[in-house]
Every structure is written in structure tokens, then in C-alpha cells.
TrEMBL record:
It holds the Pfam family Acyl-CoA_dh_1. Its cofactor is FAD. It comes from Nocardia ignorata. GO terms for molecular function: acyl-CoA dehydrogenase activity; flavin adenine dinucleotide binding. Keywords: FAD, Flavoprotein, Oxidoreductase. InterPro entries: AcylCo_DH-like_C (IPR036250), AcylCo_DH/oxidase_C (IPR009075), AcylCoA_DH/ox_N_sf (IPR037069), AcylCoA_DH/oxidase_NM_dom_sf (IPR009100). This is Acyl-CoA dehydrogenase. Belongs to the acyl-CoA dehydrogenase family. Residues 187-305 form the Acyl-CoA dehydrogenase/oxidase C-terminal domain. It comes from the Bacteria. Gene3D superfamilies: Acyl-CoA dehydrogenase/oxidase, N-terminal domain, Butyryl-CoA Dehydrogenase, subunit A, domain 3.
Length: 338
């Protein structure tokens, strides 16, 4: 993956670290106007937006680092939903983009979208729906939508949005635009999951070294060493698969033929890695890690929630199975060495 300027990544990390130091744990999954204003002033809320349309003109490599920095410090903010999904879709559709806060949703045949991130907190929802075989997009003020509050298992806002598509006026976009929207969301969640897994690894290593039991550090016990080694291996596998998908997206500007497969690999690896990492980390930490006072649950809960968004683990496994069967014997090796 293309190297990202070190000063930029250090600045991102510093912003989220300082924010986390100044805010209590119970506030991490709520909207913070001050943080959003600071991120906007730094050009991070529209990091990948076109410079001609008020964005910073960066790419997905930089966006991945931004998502990673927020997740690593346990800060929940809809950067992916606003910049990588909603505003990008508006740009693709040729619709105007301004400084208002946005998220995105895909309405089903009843005019309902469930699990929409941060819908109650934003100014507008970029709404997508199907009509007569066409895909339509509209930038809708939240006041014109019916929004029911909800949260995911990590306590983040995941609302239900209801609208009457017959009353909406939309711009027709190619079906591929919706497919790319889904892939971007899926890869963004993959990046966030990997950042959470890496943080869990760091916390587990630190706890095993510092915690003394029966007169010696936990890290001296072979059973604990095995648990931590498995965490490291699974986190590394998930990160490698995800970085390969991000690199392909950057290299091909989201047009590579192999991108669907690479994103599926990344999400499958990250999803299965989460099961092992979360289980082992809580075993390493014992009862202490299950308390609300300990920060471990912030990252294990987030990883478990994020791995099920923009496609479940099973759905990504099914995609890989379908691809392997289609490749058949002669095409399987080229498929997995892409």
C-alpha cells in the first residue's frame, strides 16, 4: 500500500488521543460537535473529497490511516459514512456537496433502511433506492425522513430510516455505483476491525507482562503465551488481507476486476480473526477485562459489531465459496494468488 506521510498520521493520532483523554468512556459513542469542528478545520471530514468541491483531495490510503487512528484510540466518529460513502456517492452522481453532516442508507422495497449509522445526528441522509430497474440517489434532509433511534452491540447509533420513495426526487446512477458503495463500506469496516484487533493485541501483551499471578508475570505461563500468540497471528492475518484490499482499491481506483474477491477475503479473515482475538483476550485479562471500568470491552465490542456491518461473516464466506467453485480446479490457484 502507498506510504502515507508520517506527519499526517502523527497528527491524526494526536487529535484522537487528545480527544479521548478529555472525554469519559460513556461519551465515546455519542456525537461530539467540538471534535467534528476540529476535524473539519483540519480537512479530515472531507479527506478524500475532490479539491474542486471543497475536499482535501487525498486518497484511500490516507483515509484508511484516519479510520485506523480513530478506532485505535476508541473514538467513534462517522468519518467513513460521511466522506467515503455519502459525499463520494454525491460526487459520483454529480450532486452538490457542502459542509453539512451526512450519512447514507439504502432503502428496501418498503422504503425502510435499518442499522443506518448516525442518522439522528446528521443534517442529511444520502438515500438510495431502486425504482423500475434503476438506482436512484437523493440528498435528503433528515427532517423529511422518519428516523427511529437504535444502537449496535457496541452502543453506536444505528437508526431505522423510513421514507416514501414515491415522494423523493432522485438522480439515476449506474448499478455499479451502488456496488462500489457497498464495497467501500465493507472495506472501511474491515480497516476499523483490524485497528481494534491490533489494539486488543497491545492491551493483552501489556496485561500479560504487567500482571503478576502466583509470584510471576502472566507472560511466563505457557498457556497465556499461546493465547497471546494466537491473538497476534490472527490480527496479523486480518491486517495483511485488509491492506491488500486497500492497496488494490488505491491502485485501480476501485475499478479492479479482482477487488470484489479481495474485499471478501479481507472481511472473511477479519471476521474469523475477531472470534479468536476476542475470546483469547478476555481469557488473558480474566474477570478484570469484563468490567466496564476496563477499556478492553470498548475494542472487543466494537470489533464484534463492525464485523457484522456491510455484510455478515457468513455472507463473505459464501462469496468466497462461490468464487472458488466458479474458478474450478484450473483457476483456483490463480484466484488465490491474485
Amino acid at each position: 500500500m502507498n506510504a502515507v506521510d508520517r506527519e499526517l498520521t502523527d497528527m491524526m493520532a494526536a487529535v484522537f488521543a487528545r480527544h479521548r483523554e478529555q472525554h469519559p468512556p460513556e461519551k465515546i459513542a455519542t456525537w461530539d460537535d467540538g471534535l467534528w469542528a476540529q476535524l473539519s478545520e483540519l480537512g479530515l471530514t472531507r479527506l478524500t473529497g475532490s479539491a474542486d468541491l471543497g475536499g482535501s483531495g487525498a486518497g484511500w490510503a490516507e483515509a484508511a490511516e484516519l479510520l485506523r487512528a480513530a478506532a485505535t484510540h476508541g473514538v467513534r466518529v462517522p468519518l467513513a459514512e460521511h466522506d467515503l460513502l455519502a459525499c463520494r456517492l454525491l460526487e459520483d452522481a454529480g450532486l452538490p456537496v457542502d459542509d453539512e453532516r451526512r450519512t447514507v442508507c439504502l432503502l428496501d422495497h418498503t422504503g425502510t433502511a435499518r442499522g443506518v449509522p448516525w442518522a439522528e445526528e446528521v443534517d442529511r441522509v444520502v438515500t438510495v433506492w431502486h425504482h423500475g430497474g434503476a438506482c436512484l440517489v437523493a440528498d435528503v434532509p433528515t427532517a423529511e425522513l422518519r428516523i427511529t433511534h437504535g444502537v449496535n452491540s457496541a452502543g453506536e447509533p444505528r437508526d431505522t430510516v423510513t421514507a416514501d420513495p414515491h415522494l423523493l426526487t432522485g438522480i439515476t446512477v449506474p448499478g455499479t455505483a451502488i456496488e462500489r458503495l457497498w464495497l467501500r463500506g465493507a472495506l472501511a469496516r474491515g480497516v476499523q476491525v483490524c485497528a481494534a484487533l491490533d489494539r486488543i493485541l497491545d492491551m493483552s501483551v501489556t496485561h500479560a507482562v504487567e500482571r503478576v499471578q502466583f509470584g510471576r508475570p502472566l507472560a511466563k505461563f505457557q498457556a497465556v503465551q499461546t493465547l497471546v500468540a494466537d491473538i497476534a497471528a490472527q490480527a496479523s492475518l486480518a491486517r495483511a488481507a485488509t491492506e491488500a484490499a486497500v492497496a488494490a482499491a488505491v491502485r485501480t481506483d476501485w475499478s479492479g476486476e479482482e477487488l470484489d474477491f479481495l474485499v471478501a477475503v479481507a472481511r472473511s479473515c477479519a471476521g474469523h480473526a475477531t472470534s479468536v482475538v476476542v475470546r483469547n483476550a478476555h481469557q488473558v485479562h480474566g474477570a478484570m477485562g469484563a468490567t466496564l471500568e476496563h477499556r478492553l470491552h470498548e475494542f472487543t465490542g466494537a470489533a464484534l459489531a463492525w464485523r457484522s456491518e456491510f455484510g455478515s461473516v457468513r455472507s463473505w464466506d459464501d462469496k468466497l465459496t462461490t468464487a472458488a467453485m466458479a474458478a474450478a480446479r484450473d483457476g483456483l490457484w490463480p484466484l488465490i494468488t491474485t
